[in-house]
Amino acid sequence: MxxxxxxxxxFARPDITEAEVDAVARALRSGWVTTGPETKAFxxxxxxxxxxxxHAVAVNSATAGLHLALEAIGIGPGDEVIAPTxxxxxxxxxxxxxxADARLVxxxxxxxxxxxxxxxxxxxxxxxxxxxxxxGGLSCDMGAIFAIARRHGLQVVEDAAHALPATHxxxxxxxxxxxxxxxxxYANKTMTAGEGGMVVTRDEALAARMKVMRLHGISxxxxxxxxxxxxxxxxxxxxxxxxxxxTDIAAALGRVQLQRLPAFVQRRRQMAARYLRELxxxxxxxxxxxxxxxxxxxxxxxxxLSDAARVTRDDVIQRLSDAGIGTSVHYVPLHRQPYWRDRYxxxxxxxxxxxxxxxxxxxxxLFTAMSDEEQGRVITxxxxxxG
Length: 387
Ligand SMILES: *Cc1c(COP(=O)(O)O)cnc(C)c1O
Fold this sequence. Notes:
By secondary structure, this protein is α/β, with parallel strands linked by helices. It folds into 2 domains: 18-258, 3-Layer(aba) Sandwich (Aspartate Aminotransferase, domain 2); 261-386, Aspartate Aminotransferase, domain 1, CATH 3.90.1150.10. The protein contains 14 helices and 14 strands. Strands 1-9-8-5-4-2-3 form a 7-stranded mixed beta sheet, with helices on both faces. α7 (142-152) links the parallel β4 and β5 (155-159). It starts with a helix and ends with a helix. Bound molecules: pyridoxal-5'-phosphate (PLP). The site of pyridoxal-5'-phosphate (PLP) has 14 residues, from α4 and α5. It holds the Pfam family DegT_DnrJ_EryC1.
C-alpha cells in the first residue's frame, strides 16, 4: 500500500470494534445463523431504545422495510404516493413494486426536506400516502405533514434511513404518529448491521402483516393457536410473501452497534459542530442545524457552494480527491434519473429548489471512526480550495 492510499480519508467507513467481531463469532458458533434469538433481541432492544410502545420488525434492508410498510397499509395498483425528488430511489421504487405511482415534489431550499406546500399541490384523487425522508438526519416539518395527511385522509410512512436518532419537537423519529418509520443499517448509516433495516409502528395489526409478509406469507397464528397439537413441520401460507428476514449474524452486529449508538451520536454532534464552526466565512451554504426542540442525527454533512464561490462543485470534488479526501453527492435528484424522468415526463424546471441545490452540493466525510486529525485535514483542504 502506498502512503497516499494509507492516508486517504474515505467518504464513510463503518466503526467496527472487537466487540462486534466477537458478537458475530458467537452467532456463527451458536449453530443458528438465520433469523432467531439475536434478531428477536435486536427488535426488542431497538423498540426500547426508541422509548417503548412500538412494534419493531427487523428486515434485511430498509428498502425491504419500505416495501413491507407500503404493502401493509394497502398501497396497490393505481394508487399514488408523494415523495421528495431529493432522495435515494429506494424511497419510491417500492411503490412501483406494488403497481402504484410516485408523485415527486420539490424540497425546502433551507432544510432540503420535502416542502409541505409542494405536497398539497401534488394531491390527486389517487393519493394514498406521503413518504417524508429526513434528509441528512434533520427531521421534516412533520407537524405540517401530519396536518395535510389528516385533511386529505392520507397515510404517512417515514423513510427514516438518515434519522437514527433524530428528534422532532421532543419526540424521537420512530415515535411520531405516522403509520410506520423505516430505519437502515446499511454500511454507511449512523449504525450498521452490514445490511439490514428496522420498521417500527404502533399499530399491532400492521406489524403482524409485515411479519407475515417478511417471510413468504407464513402465518404464525396456526402455531400459536394450536401449538400443543400442531406438529412442528406444519405451517400455513396466507399470502404470496417476500424473503426479507434479517439473519442472526447481522442482528448480532446490529445489537452491539445499538449499544454504542449513544456514543456515536455524541461524536457526530461534536464533529458537526466543529465543521459548522471552522467552515464559517467560506463561500459555502452550511447545512441547516435543527430548530430549537429538535435534534439532528447528522448522518450527512452536506455543503453547497454559495454565489461567491469562484470554483464549480465538480472542481471542488476533484481537488478534494487530489488531497486524498472522499466525497459524495446526495443526491442526483430523482427527476434527473432516466427511469423516473421518462416515466413521468419530469423536467428540472418543475423542481427549482432541488435543482439549484443539486448543482452546488457535495457531502464531506462525517463518520465516527474518523480522527480529529483527519477532520482537520478536510477543513484545511476546503479552506485552501475555497479561501
Ligand atoms: C440508505 C437509504 C435507503 C435504503 O436503505 P437500505 O438499507 O440500503 O435498503 C433508503 N432511503 C434512503 C434515503 C437511504 O439513504
